[in-house]
Amino acid sequence: MGVNKSKSAFRSIAEVTEELGVAPHVLRFWETKFTQIKPMKTKSSRRYYRPDDVELLSRIKDLLYNRRYTIEGVQKLFKNRSLKDILGTEIQKDFFEEEEEITTDSGVLEEAIKKAVCELTKVKEELMVATKD
């Protein structure tokens, strides 16, 4: 690709075709055959692919071109499976902020635990009042 984008950035159809090495009409055709592919479309019908869409398209290309599945075979493989099942548990993980460093300072940990216990106690009390009514 010409521009270095974040892994979580949306990609145009031109960028995806360049990355995967397939023609734009192939991606549009795959959209008609695999309901899991759902690029965002603007009012002018321009497609923008999410990172998950690109990963899914890459898997489909691998299954069709390298592993020699038929389209029907890939459809059966994907049938009744969620996108998370197909791609694994790391879907769009880089959309989320990086995890904060875990501290080993016992004072900070103790304070966080006390705060959590206090919040849970409040929730418990609210639930007990709500169930009495």
Question: How would you describe this structure to a colleague?
Answer:
The protein has 133 residues and is mainly α. It folds into two domains: 1-98, Multidrug-efflux Transporter Regulator, Chain: A, Domain 2 (Orthogonal Bundle), CATH 1.10.1660; 100-133. It has helices at residues 13-20, 24-33, 51-66, 71-78, 83-87, 106-132, and strands at residues 11-12, 40-41, 47-49. The protein has a three-stranded antiparallel sheet. Mean pLDDT is 81; it is low at 90-100.
CATH class of the largest domain: Mainly Alpha
**Low-pLDDT residue spans:** 90-100
The SS-based structural class is mainly alpha
**Order of helices and strands, N to C?**
EHHEEHHHH
Largest sheet: 3 strands, antiparallel
Number of strands: 3
Quick recap:
With 133 residues, the protein is mainly alpha-helical. It has helices at residues 13-20, 24-33, 51-66, 71-78, 83-87, 106-132; strands spanning 11-12, 40-41, 47-49.
Structural descriptors:
elongated, Multidrug-efflux Transporter Regulator, Chain: A, Domain 2, mainly alpha, 6 helices, 3 strands, 133 residues, 3-stranded antiparallel sheet
List the helices and strands and how they pair.
Elements: E1 11-12, H1 13-20, H2 24-33, E2 40-41, E3 47-49, H3 51-66, H4 71-78, H5 83-87, H6 106-132
